[in-house]
Amino acid sequence: MKKLIQSFLWLLLFSGSLISCTWEKEQCEIYLEPLTVIPMNYYPVYPGSWWLYEVNDTTTEQFQVSETYLPHSYENVASEPWETPSFSDTVYVPFINEKPIYGYNKIEWVRPPFGDYYVQWPILSEQVGFEFEREWTDKRYGDFSEKLKVTSKYFNGTDSIITVEGHWVYGPNVSRKSYQTFGKNIGLMTEHIVDTLTVDTVYKKVLLNYFVNH
Question: How far apart are CA 96 and CA 35, in angstroms?
């Protein structure tokens, strides 16, 4: 019996659990550590990483990842005011510019009257053809959301690249299209928004320098 318990304990230790045992009674209390959400290949926001971009040829914008993985949970079920909120399990995630990142997902707030809770929301996917919206929006007064689609995944001779294209179906941006490229083990490399009527580039972001702390 003791050998069976020892084998079980080694398995749990290998998985990162914390264990407190009283061998005389052959009983163990098991404390599971929160999981760590490891960054994905095309959005490698490892702790200590950073990216510097040039925006519209005039300014720069920097994105900085927290120095460590940090604990995070979120209210993930809409509840009545008199009910106890339901929360996701606590996990360790990287924070980029103080916002938690879950692999290829961020956290979005579903606002009242549709609810008052949070959900994981796509940033990117490696699946060509995958469609999503830039963020959650209230569509009662028109669909102003940006519609995105992963259009290709290819090797350009130097890097493996994912391209994402976007468009709008309503509102002031309806004549515009967006284009993003993500490099494997690099992250966002370029972002452009083009007015299809004037053929002008109205927004441009280009990666100047970066450091991925694998």
Answer: 18
**CA–CA separation, 139 vs 119, rounded Å?**
17
What pTM was computed for the model? 0.83
Taking alpha carbons only, the member of 198, 178, 200, 199 closest to residue 190 is: 178
Domain edges within the chain: 1-33, 34-211
Question: 184 and 160 in contact (C-beta within 8 Å)?
Answer: yes
Residues 6+ apart with CB under 8 A from 118: 74, 75, 76, 107, 108, 109, 110
92/34 Cα distance (integer angstroms): 7
* Tens-digit pLDDT profile for residues 36-93: 999 999 999 999 999 999 999 999 999 999 999 999 999 987 556 666 778 999 999 9
Asked whether the beta carbons of 72 and 52 are under 8 A apart, the reply is no
- Asked if 47 and 66 touch (Cβ cutoff 8 Å), the reply is yes
The highest-level CATH class for domain 34-211 is mainly beta
The residues pairing with 188 across neighbouring beta strands, listed in sequence order, are 182
| Cα–Cα separations (whole angstroms), residue 73 to 100, 121, 164, 187 | 9, 14, 29, 25
